[in-house]
Amino acid sequence: MKHLTNRFLLFILTASFSLGCADLDEKPVGLLAPESLFRTSKDVETAIFGAYGWIATERLYGRQFVSALMLRSDMVDIGDRGTPAERQQVNDFNMDDNNNMVNQFWPTWYQVISAANAAISGGQQLGLPENEINPLLAEARFVRAFAYFNLVQVFGDVPYIDYFISNPEAVKAISRTPAATVYGSIISDLEFAKQWLPEKQPSEVRSRASKGTAASYLASVHLTLGDYAKAYAEAKYVIDNKDKFGYALEADFQTLFVAPQAPNMKEHIFDVDFLGLKNGEGGANDDIMAPMTGVRGGDAPRSGWSVLVPSMNVFNTWDARDYRKEVSFDDSLLIGGKLVPYTEFPNTKRPHIAKYARFAGTANSEGRYSDQNYAAMRYAEVLLIAAEASVEVNGPNAEALTYINEIRTRARNWAGKQTTFPANVTTGLSKAALIDLIMEERRIELAFEYKRWFDIKRRNLGETVFVGAKSLEPHTSFNPARDYLMPIPRVELQVNPNLGPQNPGY
Question: Which keywords does the record carry (predicted)?
Fold first, then answer.
């Protein structure tokens, strides 16, 4: 999807009614009600595009939010320690409630929600037949669920707003909603979306939600909540209908990380679409992940800032026979016209993440303003959700092994050459051992794709992966009573004390 139309309209909608305190302290230029803005279903669609547009900003998928997820995991460490302290604090588990990364992405998620709520409210008052308006309402409700799913996993209890705010002052009285209630609302939105969204969007674009997208996220939400039977049922629904939805694994793993990707890439179930060399106000369309992960001092267009760099343990413990390691890392680079190994990198002498910097497509000399389509959900993850949930419900079984082995079969295709690694998983593992294997398969398959922290959190792995003897990235400061949640921004609590109490430990 390449939609930047009517951005001015959506800027007014989302900026005026954001939960962020900066917006609350400013006098709104005018209050715009849905009945004055939404005259046709096309206006509703425009609002939805605006909500998608806020996801593709520097503050969310362009840098801040996804960088925080990467740093919080055991797969990505700080490279250049000259980077701003806010990033080091997130990485080192010593952040406070004034962390600037959080200060930026918290209100932006609510801008996404505000735009979705505007679309829903505007669409409902049009009085159109269900079959005409409900698919658009379903798309807006998917976007709202997507935003809240990210918020509730990071912060726990959060303010839940599912209506169009016509009076910004009223926001100051809003309190936080229990996480369980938020999850219930997320599931309700996704079930409505699954019912009413089309099987495919026009031109099969994957940056707009479809029926399969909603079902995939239902599977992920139920997995997060430990409702494995429902997670399995939703993932199995997607797998059984993969041909109808147009889903499959790409033959070559590298294809997933070469920009520009096809807008209807068959493995993508939902992606966040950036436009090469375009940007707008509020960090719109500003993708900075290539320079954040790229090598400082490399020759253009492969230079970067060496900020998000895996530890040596992550690289050294990854079997070199795995093609996914080759795709995921840059362990050599042209510097001064000479190909040098990572031991000669001028800043951080470690292998760097290659998934975003290697083929950034149309971008500036550092890879910024790329035209990447970042996969927020891909078919490989659905297979792994099905495998994990199936084992949790039924114990080790052939079906679960089939899903894992489908992914491993693709991994054996080394750029068109068939190899023997990784071998298929065979029968004989205990339930606990097979769950551990699936979690490791997720860590490798989805490496650096913003999933690992959520896996650590939902499986309560923090003390194992940060403090345990086999930690890939040791952090003895990790505190499970505090660090599974990030703090509510201090400035938000100052504007609205009803958001208290602060999360424990901050």
Answer: Cell outer membrane, Membrane, Signal
**30/19 Cα distance (integer angstroms):** 17
Q: What is the pLDDT at residue 282?
A: 85
Q: What is the pLDDT of residues 373-382, one digit of tens each?
A: 999 999 999 9
What is the average per-residue pLDDT within 386-394?
98
The SS3 assignment for 354 reads: coil
Which value, in Å, is the radius of gyration of the alpha carbons in the chain? 22
86, two tokens: 């806010």
Instruction: Give me the domains of the chain, ranges plus CATH numbers.
Output: 1-197 (1.25.40.390)
Give me the residue label for tokens 């950034």: 360
Band (pLDDT 50/70/90 cuts) for residue 29 is very low
Smallest CA-to-CA distance from 214 within 178, 248, 238, 241 is with 238
Instruction: State how far the alpha carbon of 169 is from the alpha carbons of 24, 27, 331, in Å.
Output: 7, 10, 53
Residue with tokens 């050459």: 417
64-90: buried (b, 16+ CB within 10 Å) or exposed (e) per residue?
bbbbbbbbbbbbbbbbeeebeebbbbb
Distance CA 279, CA 469 (A): 45
Using alpha carbons, select from 361, 17, 371 the residue that is nearest to residue 170: 17
Sign of the Cα pseudo-torsion (465, 468, 473, 478, in order): positive
The 10s digit of each residue's pLDDT in 42-90 is 999 999 999 999 999 999 999 999 999 999 999 999 999 999 999 999 9
